[in-house]
Amino acid sequence: MDITTALAPAEATSPSPVDADMVKDVVSGLSATQKFLPSRWFYDDEGSRLFQKIMIMPSYYPSRVEHEILVRRAQDLVRWIAPSSGEVDLIELGCGDGTKTVSLCTALHDAGVPLAFHAIDVSAHALAELSTRFKHELPQVAVHALRGDYFQRWPSVYALRKQVAMFLGSNIGNLPIAQAIGLLKRIRSRLKRGDLLLLGVDLQKDPRAVLAAYNDVEGVTAQFNLNLLSRLNRELGMNFDLTAFRHYACYSPIDGAARSFLVSTVEQTVRSTQLARTFHFRAGETIYTEQSQKYTFDTVEELAASGGFTVCDHITDAREWYSISVLGAH
Ligand code: AVJ
What we know:
Elements: H1 20-31, E1 35-36, H2 45-55, H3 61-72, H4 74-81, E2 87-93, H5 102-110, E3 115-121, H6 124-137, E4 142-147, H7 150-153, E5 161-167, H8 177-190, E6 196-202, H9 207-214, H10 220-236, E7 245-252, E8 257-264, E9 268-272, E10 277-281, E11 286-293, H11 297-306, E12 309-316, E13 322-329
Parallel strand pairs: 1-11, 2-3, 2-5, 3-4, 5-6
Antiparallel strand pairs: 6-13, 7-8, 8-11, 9-10, 12-13
This protein binds N,N,N-trimethyl-histidine (AVJ).
N,N,N-trimethyl-histidine binds next to helix 10 and strand 11.
């Protein structure tokens, strides 16, 4: 296996330098009438660990069902991915530790598809695990573990190689619609006619099942949500009292949006030494921390069209709880 990018050492032990984007997001989000914090800040080391715990909870179905589709419907995916001639560059945006994709890559390899796997993620730790996993389970496939921004790390485009991008995990659902369309357009701009995007999307279903995924009895999602405040305490010198905020999740079938909030249980003022600012909270006031959009086949098609794609297929589980939608660049 060939790892083209050296992985930077983990920075977990020393306090990270203040991130200018984080400062901007926190100041604007906590000064807004409806306070908000973008969900991208969930994923520090502790947040990633908590998300891994979420993924194995019985109530959190999306990861399990997506994985089931990747395994059980691998042949359908292989049929779409296999090129008529030449080789395939499989490009996964936000690959994580590779548990998701190793089975698909194995199916492609077994079907004789000539393949290079470009795995892009921001986490050095996840990429190191991915590299080890592929070395053990699928040493025959060339893996390029690429750390950093999806578009800076995007591999060179060759006319004779089919590019198949993958954006799984229903991560697209975390983005407000305009940003989701913007991301699809950027991906589309890297693809040639005939290339594909495999988009993982969580589908609308019994609202009780959706709500249970974000409102687990184990309280792991609550910890995951509250970790955002611990992170701000650590990285921005804030003094959030974690016992004075509670996780609140809701799901509305009207717009298909699951939303998470942190509720201030009392009136309180929170300071940041780094920002030299205070933020006031009324009792019951909320911080909107996450949106997880649930789709229908129709809304996936609208989203795809706005991003410059056509839907070729929706590859789902038997209950149609989740779809890996095959989007074609035309
Ligand atoms: C990884 C963004 C898809 O929105 O379902 C899980 C994150 N948040 N539980 C999701 C998450 C709360 C997850 N995504």
